[in-house]
């Protein structure tokens, strides 16, 4: 049997190969899923025809294309003794062989030894025997084949069940495959999504990497900078350390020095304390002395005032000074006609000194000053022809409180007056008149020229008062000063410091009997703070007067001007020394009277009515002044309630408080030196003498204690 079925191992091998192929195909089918037809269903289950099956099994496939299990190999004919060519062998029949068949060939045409049909060699007995043997062999082969077929059928059945099982598996696998496919699809999508995400992440990552790289570069840069800073800092630190160490050394040195100095300082402090105590003691003593001296000074100030007043009283409360002005070059021109040699005046005008002196001698009156010690006398000599033709010489002696010769200076005149300024600061009313004919030098005496040396009594008195007020501060007094400047023209009061139109405003004179002060309504009263301010005020007054003069002609000679300076003080004390609170008020009236020559000049023809009016006004006011002074004199001599006619003129009414017994009055008689003015001069001298002989009571100081 083993020889009869030599293909069995081959078939087994083929089966295993076929299974492997099926598995591979199944595996392939899993890779490429397709529906497999059921083997039993697509092919009729008919008995196997080995030859055909054997022939077709190798290559047949199901209609579905699924590889079928390989058919069993056809029993092979026993190998022939000699090999035959496959191509000449007859086709294999599936019917049982009636005669020996040609040996079977393999699909490749190779002859299988011992299994092919045996060809008859032709009618010999050996051949018949051989044929029977072969027949027997064939029978046994066919039986074997039948057995094989049965076995094959069983195998087939087994295979079919396996196939069915495999198909079921295949179906399950296909489903799994489909599921797997959809899963795969999902996974692919996920994969794509994941890939995108990965891509994005990669980009992001690369960006981050770039950022990080930049950051790293930046950090590197910063690090370099920090390292550089660190290096600099280290260098600085090193330097600082060196400095600190040198400072430490210095401190050590200085500590030693400080210790030394502290020791010295303590010693010095101690000695200074001693010194201070000593000095404090001395200072206290000195302070006490100063206080005592201040008290003494204040007391002596009171004594001084009393003494000063006594001296003034002894001198008389109304005093008269006489001042003769020099002959002026202009006089030579004016009175050239009265010169014996008129030509000399011309030459004198051109500056010839010999001629001038000669003409001067000719023009001036005979005035002499015999009292060269006290300068109190003036002698006027005049010669006149009597009716019989005899020359008559007359000598007139006049004595005054002081006579100033033509060459006397403004300073000399003021020296005598300055005492009155002091009295004013002390709280007295002072009145200084300039009396005299036109051109005698009244304005020059009162106001003076522009230069320092020629400045008159008003600016000098003001300066003096400021000086005295300043001095009095050291004695505990504080002063305020105010000034006004009025003009009385044709019995009308005008404000020389006013801003309104001249001569238009009406001003009234008012006296306060309680305080003894005089006020004029609507006049400019200026607070005086410095002598220079007073000088500018005088200039303003002068310009206003000059302006009026162009309208009225020679206004200054035809009107009285009254500059009033009021001073008020209070004793506030000095430093720690309290003041007495005493108050005092004084006034200084500086009066430039109108020309006095009116007494002899008459405009009776009425040609110049204005001039007549002026003359009458001047006459009235100067007469009233004489009357007031005379009445005051009488009152002083006899006492009682003698009426004083202050109201007879604006001038006397204005000066009421400065002419009364409470005041100090000075009249400066200005005289012209010219012979041509001799009669006028004599009249003035007589008037002044009358005034000088008057005694006006006792001046009273205006004080109040608050
Ligand atoms: N002592 C003096 N020394 C030098 N010149 C004088 C002196 N006195 C007066 N004079 C001069 O005489 C002239 C007349 O003087 P002043 O004007 O002062 O006279 P007056 O009396 O005020 O005249 P009027 O009444 O017209 O104002 C002026 O030029 C003045 O400078």
TrEMBL record:
Coiled-coil residue spans: 149-243, 276-303
Instruction: List, as start-end ranges, the regions of compositional bias called Low complexity.
Output: 67-81, 337-353
Q: Where is the composition biased (Polar residues)?
A: 48-62, 82-91
Q: Binding of ATP: at which residues? A: 436-443
What SMART domains does UniProt report for this protein, alphabetically?
KISc
Provide any one GO MF term from the record.
microtubule motor activity
Q: Where is the Kinesin motor domain?
A: 317-694
Kindly provide the name given to this protein in its UniProt entry.
Kinesin-like protein
What organism, scientifically named, is this protein from? Gymnopilus junonius (Spectacular rustgill mushroom)
């Amino acid at each position: 049997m083993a020889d009869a079925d030599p293909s069995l191992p081959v078939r087994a091998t083929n089966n295993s190969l076929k299974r492997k192929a099926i598995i591979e195909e199944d595996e392939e089918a899993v890779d490429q899923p397709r529906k497999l037809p059921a083997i039993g269903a697509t092919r009729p289950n008919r008995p196997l025809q080995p030859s055909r099956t054997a022939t077709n099994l190798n290559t047949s496939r199901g209609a579905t294309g699924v590889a079928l299990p390989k058919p069993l190999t056809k029993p092979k004919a026993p190998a022939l003794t000699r090999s035959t060519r496959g191509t000449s062998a007859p086709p294999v029949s599936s019917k049982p062989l009636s005669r020996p068949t040609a040996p079977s060939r393999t699909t490749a045409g190779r002859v299988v030894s011992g299994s092919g049909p045996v060809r008859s060699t032709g009618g010999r007995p050996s051949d018949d025997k051989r044929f029977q043997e072969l027949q027997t062999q064939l029978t046994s082969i066919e039986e074997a084949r039948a057995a094989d077929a049965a076995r094959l059928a069983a195998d087939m059945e087994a295979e079919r069940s396996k196939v069915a099982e495999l198909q079921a598996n295949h179906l399950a696998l296909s489903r799994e495959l489909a599921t797997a496919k959809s899963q795969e699809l999902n996974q692919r999508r996920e994969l794509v999504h994941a890939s995108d995400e990965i891509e994005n992440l990669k980009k992001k990552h690369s960006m981050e990497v770039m950022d990080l790289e930049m950051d790293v570069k930046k950090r590197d840069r910063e690090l370099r900078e920090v390292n550089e800073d660190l290096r600099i800092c280290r260098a600085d630190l090193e330097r600082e350390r060196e400095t600190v160490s040198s400072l430490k050394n210095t401190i050590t040195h200085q500590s030693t020095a400080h210790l030394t100095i502290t020791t010295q300082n303590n010693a010095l402090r101690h000695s200074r304390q001693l010194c201070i105590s000593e000095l404090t003691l001395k200072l206290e003593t000195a302070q006490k002395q100063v206080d005592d001296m201040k008290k003494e000074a204040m007391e002596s100030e009171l004594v001084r005032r009393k003494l000063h007043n006594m001296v003034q009283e002894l001198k008389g409360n109304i005093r008269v000074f006489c001042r003769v002005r020099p002959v002026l070059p202009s006089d030579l021109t004016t009175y050239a006609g009265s010169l014996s040699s008129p030509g000399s005046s011309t030459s004198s005008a051109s500056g010839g000194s010999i001629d001038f002196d000669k003409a001067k001698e000719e023009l001036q009156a005979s005035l002499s000053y015999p009292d060269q010690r006290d300068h109190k006398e003036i002698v006027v000599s005049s010669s006149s022809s009597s009716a019989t033709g005899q020359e008559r010489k007359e000598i007139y002696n006049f004595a005054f409180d002081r006579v100033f010769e033509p060459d006397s200076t403004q300073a000399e005149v003021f020296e005598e007056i300055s005492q009155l300024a002091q009295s004013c600061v002390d709280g007295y009313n002072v009145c200084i008149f300039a009396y005299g004919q036109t051109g005698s030098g009244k304005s020059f005496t009162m106001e003076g020229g522009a230069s320092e040396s020629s400045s008159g009594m008003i600016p000098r008195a003001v300066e003096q008062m400021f000086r005295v007020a300043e001095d009095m501060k050291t004695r505990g007094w504080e002063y305020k000063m105010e000034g006004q400047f009025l003009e009385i023209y044709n019995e009308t009061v005008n404000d020389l410091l006013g801003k309104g139109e001249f001569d238009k405003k009406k001003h009234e004179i008012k006296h306060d009997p309680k305080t003894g002060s005089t006020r004029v309504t609507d006049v400019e009263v200026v607070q005086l703070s410095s002598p220079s301010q007073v000088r500018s005020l005088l200039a303003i007054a002068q310009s206003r007067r000059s302006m009026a003069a162009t309208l009225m002609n020679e206004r200054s000679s035809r009107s009285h001007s009254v500059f009033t300076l009021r001073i008020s003080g209070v004793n506030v004390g000095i430093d720690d020394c309290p003041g007495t609170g005493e108050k005092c008020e004084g006034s200084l009236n500086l009066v430039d009277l109108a020309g006095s020559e009116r007494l002899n000049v008459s405009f009776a023809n009425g040609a110049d009515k204005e001039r007549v009016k002026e003359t009458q006004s001047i006459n009235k006011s100067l007469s009233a002044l004489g009357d007031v002074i005379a009445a005051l004199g009488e009152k002083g001599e006899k006492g009682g309630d003698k009426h004083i006619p202050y109201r007879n003129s604006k001038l006397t009414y204005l000066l009421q408080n400065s002419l009364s017994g409470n005041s100090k009055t000075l009249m400066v008689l200005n005289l012209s030196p010219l012979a041509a003015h001799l009669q006028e001069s004599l009249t003035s001298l007589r008037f002044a003498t009358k005034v000088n002989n008057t005694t006006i009571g006792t001046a009273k100081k205006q004080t109040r204690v608050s």
